[in-house]
Design brief:
The structure holds two protein chains of two kinds. Helix content of chain A is 0%, strand content 53%. By secondary structure, chain A is mainly beta. In chain A, strands 2, 4, 5, 6, 9, 10 and 11 form a seven-stranded mixed β-sheet that branches. The termini of chain A are far apart. Chain B contains no helices and eleven strands. Chain B has strands at residues 4-7, 10-14, 19-25, 32-38, 45-51, 56-59, 62-67, 72-77, 86-92, 102-103, 107-112. In chain B, strand 4 (32-38) and strand 5 form a beta hairpin. Classes of the chains: A mainly beta, B mainly beta. Chains A and B meet through strand 5 and strand 10 of A and strand 4, strand 5 and strand 10 of B.
C-alpha cells in the first residue's frame, strides 16, 4: 500500500456527463499529481499541485480541471465526457514540489464513458 | 518539452536470463530518471531511480545506467524470475518549475519458465 488513496475505484458514466475523482496523498506529502493511462498512450501527465498551488501542467484538456484543498487532498473534475476519456486515472504524491521527487501512486480510478 | 522513447515494447526472456530495457530522452536539462514497475491491474511502483550526477546504481538484481552525453539510460535485470513479469516504465524530469515526470511508453517483460 503506497498510502495514496483514490476514490472511486470504478466509475461508469455516459457521454456529456461530469465526474469528480478524488485523491488523498500520503501523510506529509505536499505535492499531488494526476496522470491518465490509456492503452495506446501510456502514462500521460495532466497536472501537478504543490501545497494548494498549481505547479506544473501537462496535456490537460480544457474540459478537465483540478484543485488541491487546504487539507491537501485533490480532486480532478472531468466534464463534457467523451468516449475517448475512458482511461485509468492515477493520482500520485511526493514530498517535494520540484524535480527529482519520488512519486507514489494510488490504485487509480477506472473511468468508463459509455 | 521532454520526450522519452523506450525500447523494446515487448521483451520475452527465459527464467534466469538477463533483461535490458533502454530509454532515450530529449531534454538535456533532465536530471532525474526513475523506473517504475506496473503489474497487471496494479499501480506503478518505483523500483529504482538515478540522478544525473551518478552513472550507475544497483539494488540487488536491478541496476540502472545513465549516459548523459548520449542522453540515454537503461534498466538491467539479472537472474530474472517469473515475478519480474510486468510492464516497466522509464521516466525523466528536470528540477525547477514543478516535477513533471515524462514517461516512456512502457516495456512488457515476460519471464518464461
Amino acid at each position: 500500500d503506497s498510502g495514496v488513496t483514490q476514490t472511486p475505484k470504478h466509475l461508469i458514466t455516459a457521454t456529456g456527463q461530469r465526474v469528480t475523482l478524488r485523491c488523498s496523498p500520503r501523510s506529509g506529502d505536499l505535492s499531488v499529481y494526476w496522470y491518465q493511462q490509456s492503452l495506446d498512450q501510456g502514462l500521460q501527465f495532466l497536472i501537478q499541485y504543490y501545497n494548494g498551488e498549481e505547479r506544473a501542467k501537462g496535456n490537460i484538456l480544457e474540459r478537465f480541471s483540478a484543485q488541491q484543498f487546504p487539507d491537501l487532498h485533490s480532486e480532478l473534475n472531468l466534464s463534457s465526457l467523451e468516449l475517448g476519456d475512458s482511461a485509468l486515472y492515477f493520482c500520485a504524491s511526493s514530498v517535494e514540489g520540484t524535480g527529482g521527487g519520488k512519486l507514489f501512486f494510488g490504485s487509480g480510478t477506472q473511468l468508463s464513458v459509455l | 518539452g521532454e520526450n522519452v522513447e523506450q525500447h523494446p515494447s515487448t521483451l520475452s526472456v527465459q527464467e534466469g536470463d538477463s533483461a535490458v530495457i533502454k530509454c532515450t530522452y530529449s531534454d538535456s536539462a533532465s536530471n532525474y530518471f526513475p523506473w517504475y514497475k506496473q503489474e497487471l491491474g496494479k499501480r506503478p511502483q518505483l523500483i529504482i531511480d538515478i540522478r544525473s550526477n551518478v552513472g550507475e546504481k544497483k539494488d540487488q538484481r536491478i541496476a540502472v545506467t545513465l549516459n548523459k552525453t548520449a542522453k540515454h539510460f537503461s534498466l538491467h535485470i539479472t537472474e530474472t524470475q517469473p515475478e519480474d513479469s510486468a510492464v516497466y516504465f522509464c521516466a525523466a524530469s528536470t528540477t525547477g518549475g514543478g516535477n513533471k515526470l515524462t514517461f516512456g511508453t512502457g516495456t512488457q517483460l515476460k519471464v518464461e519458465l
